[in-house]
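Usage example:
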Amino acid sequence: METPTPAIWERAGSSRIPARVYTDPDIYQRELERIFYGRHWSYVGLEAELPAAGDFKRTAIGERSVILIRNREGQLNVLENRCAHRGMQFCQERSGRLRTLVCPYHQWSYDHDGNLIGVPFQKGVRGQGGMPVEFSREEHGLRKLQVATRHGVVFASFDPDVEPFESYVGPKVLRYFDRTFDGRKLVLHGYSRQRIPGNWKLMMENIKDPYHPGLLHTWFVNFGLWRADNKSELVMDARGRHACMISRRSETIDPEVTQGVSSFRASMKLNDASLLDIVHEPWWGAPTVCMTTIFPSVIFQQQVNSLSTRQIMPLGPGQFDFVWTHFGFEDDSPEMQARRMRQANLFGPAGYVSADDGEVIELSQHGVTQDREFASLCELGGTAVADTDHMVTETLIRGMYHYWREVMGL
Amino acid sequence: MTIGLKLWMELHQLYAEYAACLDEGRMSDWPGLFTEDCHYRLVPRENHDRGLPLATMDLRGRGMLEDRVYGVTSTLFHAPYYQRHVIGPIRLLEPDGDTIRAEASYVVIRTRRDQMSEVFNTGRYVDRVIETSDGLKFSAKICVFDSEIIPNSIIYPI
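Running the assembly step on the lines above writes:
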């Protein structure tokens, strides 16, 4: 039985978000149960991280530690990192290659599919002790999650009744997912990890908010990478939970979008322009940027030549871990790989257009914590939830909370 | 591995200047401690050890360092903080021709306004230093950090 939560969201619609949505421990617990451990797909990694049999990666869904591992047939499994015996979280390395998974406490061992294959002293010692005769190893494997893989990207779900991944994402957003992940082999470039002291949804909001980049991020404004005069499109799945912000970089500036914008620096010139040595890749088509949010756990970034997945792992209502996995394609030239790495200076925990996102999320969390009667205002472009062909709107945030209210029953 | 006493003293002075420049917030002096074609790299230890190319900051040439200074001082919004670098003993490695190769452990403590001081970033510098007409300069400084989970963001160079 779930504890009943007091009515915290009395107003209709999703354009005024009550402060307690970001701070209340009971609401957070319900989010873990209904969203992260419920009927949703969570991102766990890229196939490129596990090229060979026995390769594994430890990650998390919500606060639950899981192991993504490739078996000898080449299939990927996601197993909960908790021994079936006494509950020990036995895997501590982040990645590696294993023949079997062994819990060091009593050496119970599991194969790559999570089947329990060894129990020391199961039959006792010299006829004494041991497990009861009816003990069945088949019933005591590691918890095995549902797994969906699409074009090299791996998702998992704790709920066996979760809908197929493709219908979960929906055709409109899947189209942009497939734009980046079109089946070409991916190459792992590395990780950045940050712990951001804010509610996990603030990060989803950040990438559903096309209003801020052209204001907070000087580099985006000045170099036209994201600006209110860019030709843009915002699309959502039918339920409003996933979204894409798609835009096209402009070389000219409409004075209306820089007038009074304090982050715009007309005189800003780079000493070394190679940081923005952008080369158009044929698979982009017209857009130069596509930021995709797949609820609840991942953001896919294509901003010019820089590509990453950004995974959200909540740690209580007031903080989350944010893991960036940068990647390229197998057919990239060495020059393209070097370019992707140069442009990575824009992103990540120290990035010119990302470091300050973490900062504003931290300070937003302070603000909603200090005043529990406050409601965050998301009414740019009105109060409705609908796709648009411009970026002067907060419709995607409203879309997410429309869905959130439905799934949370709040 | 040894070098002359005078050079050894100058090398220590370079490291002390480096720490003082960042700790005093004299950002515009920071690029001047490097050669024109330098390499500055701040990289999590896991990427470094696994040979993965991604870094947290990867700046090649003094121009990119100057752009970072501009980015930090004029464009990046952040809660203000002090940095305090504590650099351990300099360990000399086999030189590469005229280039001194050296390593040193470091701890950077962050102190935000109205907050306690906290260990912010710790790791080791993997450096290359050359003598120029303008004194010793870093031709490469690779900061390999153990603190792989970054406490929100890194604004200033380490």
